[in-house]
């Protein structure tokens, strides 16, 4: 299966290790305007006027009604610095992921 993605974020390793975290969003979502390129928090930021509204909104977010806390449909890859420099990736680039299932020998 081959899927098309757009790079929406590139972050340094949080522990200072020699790798980067590349966050991808489906090209289809970007075209439909479901996920903005510039906001790391997605488009589901809400304001609350009282505690009851906040709790209702929080329950909805945790149950996945608003994309949840999983990054709003983003896929993240951990890439070592050598691969990152070799590929020359930048935000906004289209990339393709080709997923295949490993053959099992039944051992």
**Structural class, from helix and strand content?**
alpha+beta
Give the tally of β-strands. Answer: 4
- What's the structural domain tally? 1
Characterize the largest beta sheet: strand count, sense, and whether it forms a barrel.
4 strands, antiparallel
Q: Regarding quaternary structure, how should these chains be classified?
A: single chain
> How large is the share of residues in beta strands?
25-35%
Summarize the helix and strand pattern as letters: EEHHEHE
Q: pLDDT under 50 segments (min length 5)?
A: 35-44, 64-71
Give a verbal description of the structure.
The structure is a single chain. The chain is of the alpha+beta class and 107 residues long. It has a single domain (2-98), classed as Elongation Factor Tu (Ef-tu), domain 3 (Beta Barrel). Helices cover 23% and strands 28% of the residues. It has three helices and four strands; from the N terminus they run ββααβαβ. The protein has helices spanning 27-32, 51-62, 81-87; strands spanning 2-12, 19-26, 75-80, 94-98. A four-stranded antiparallel β-sheet has the order 3-2-1-4. It starts with a strand and ends in a 9-residue tail after the last strand.
List keywords for this structure.
about 110 residues; alpha+beta; Elongation Factor Tu (Ef-tu), domain 3; four-stranded antiparallel beta sheet; extended
């Amino acid at each position: 299966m081959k899927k098309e993605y757009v790079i929406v974020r590139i972050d340094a390793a949080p522990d200072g290790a020699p790798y980067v975290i590349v966050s991808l969003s489906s090209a289809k979502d970007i075209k439909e305007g479901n996920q903005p390129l510039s906001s790391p928090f997605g488009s589901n930021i809400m304001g609350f006027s009282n505690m009851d509204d906040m709790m209702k909104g929080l329950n909805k977010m945790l149950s996945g009604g608003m994309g949840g806390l999983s990054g709003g449909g983003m896929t993240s890859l951990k890439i070592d610095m050598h691969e990152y420099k070799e590929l020359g990736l930048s935000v906004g680039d289209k990339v393709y992921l080709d997923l295949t299932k490993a053959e099992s020998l039944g051992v």
